[in-house]
């Protein structure tokens, strides 16, 4: 009976051309992701992104008011570049550069502490005090977030 010999690879040690190309492609994609992340990190958010983030925060405020059975205030400080919830968590904040955002606030007279500083209150019955927050960065279209006073409905879109 003959003994079987182990397969002999001989001169085939190393990587194939396909394997090397796959590795190089993966490295190229990873480096592009790192470069893109670094470039976008320094940029200010667009007017649309600010309006979208603010609308999401307003939705959270509305839900929290109905769930807790207590009024929830969406505090807007355009001078400091901060929009936050009064009873929110640390992540319940929208921050922006007050100088370049071109932000404006329209809300009830009794809810404005000073120009550019005020609040929109969401009530437990689903309504709100109402208002509008508008963002317009230079060279970009204006976007606004509207809070309807009767229904508490939050909407955002391009300002016309």
TrEMBL record:
GO process terms (BP): protein secretion by the type II secretion system
Topology versus the membrane: Single-pass membrane protein
Matching Gene3D superfamilies: Glycoprotein, Type 4 Pilin
InterPro entries: N_methyl_site, Pilin-like, T2SS_GspH
GO CC annotation: plasma membrane; type II protein secretion system complex
Cellular compartment(s): Cell inner membrane
PROSITE patterns: PROKAR_NTER_METHYL
Keywords: Cell inner membrane, Cell membrane, Membrane, Methylation, Transmembrane, Transmembrane helix
Sequence ranges assigned to domain General secretion pathway GspH in this UniProt record: 51-150
Cell inner membrane in keyword set: yes
Residue spans crossing the bilayer: 20-39
Family, as annotated: Belongs to the GSP H family.
Name the UniProt record assigns to this protein: Type II secretion system protein H
